[in-house]
Design the sequence.
């Protein structure tokens, strides 16, 4: 399977776990479960911070406005 980084579009992706990958170009970690991907920034202390809100849009509920003048 050839993956591309959703951040930098690089193909320089290494496998670091059964469902975990690491981009050697922009240093982010990717987790893939089925058709769902999560993207994380690796912090200085080794913890992961989710970047999903930057890469994947959540469905937005329709806005209902009360009309009247």
Sequence:
């Amino acid at each position: 399977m050839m993956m591309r980084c959703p951040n930098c579009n690089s193909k320089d992706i290494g496998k670091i776990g059964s469902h975990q990958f690491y981009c050697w170009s922009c240093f982010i970690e990717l987790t893939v479960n089925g058709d769902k991907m999560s993207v994380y920034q690796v912090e200085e202390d080794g913890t992961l911070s989710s970047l999903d809100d930057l890469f994947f849009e959540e469905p937005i509920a329709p806005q209902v406005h009360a009309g009247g003048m």
Remarks:
- The longest helix spans residues 52-55.
- The first strand starts at residue 13 and ends at 15.
- Confidence is low (pLDDT under 50) at residues 59-63.
